[in-house]
């Protein structure tokens, strides 16, 4: 893959801002699709990227991943949707269904959209999201729409252990409440914020389980974080990063704030 990306980056007629996707299906079959509402498939995929459906990876961004300290990368995974009944085989679209994970130049697995959300949090790339919680001791659920979110990796090496603290903050609006809770009550609001914190942490833990523990691919930027803070230690240990990374301990500091309560039911 590195050779192909190097060619694209050097070719004067190819755009480094072009989006990159991965699929099990042939590129030719995907490009020949005839979407019902757009001129061509590129417009469909561009809209999906603009609406933050999955990862947004340009050629330039992929090149940066490949030359990063870990060399691992992640790309949006697309599939061709089955055509509607009575339509031709090519009268459909391709849709982003998850993320392909690469360790160096080798694809090591695919994660679904739910796990991808956790990856985006860890990479500080989450921008739009709906988080749904089921408050305790009541029926129904509450959904919040994230209007602002950010995260930061805080590396630390102590007693030979490599650790990361993930600091995340978010602002959100309540967009649906099917419970009988009075969301305008400050105590209820605090409870909702704690539940949102827990839901966000669970998303990131799920991503760590699949990508850090199972696939052992550092697509989160952990290597860069340690390199920046401990340059001398990194230069001594970088050749052992593949063994260090799966054992990096991750803790969370998450602060969610509900800005608008919306309409209570």
UniProtKB/TrEMBL annotation:
It holds the Pfam family Spore_GerAC. The keyword Membrane applies. Its main location: membrane. Residues 97-262 form the Spore germination GerAC-like C-terminal domain. It is a lipid-anchor. The lineage of its organism: Bacteria, Bacillati, Bacillota, Bacilli, Bacillales. The keyword Signal applies. It comes from Bacillus salipaludis. Belongs to the GerABKC lipoprotein family. This is Ger(X)C family spore germination protein. It is found in: Membrane.
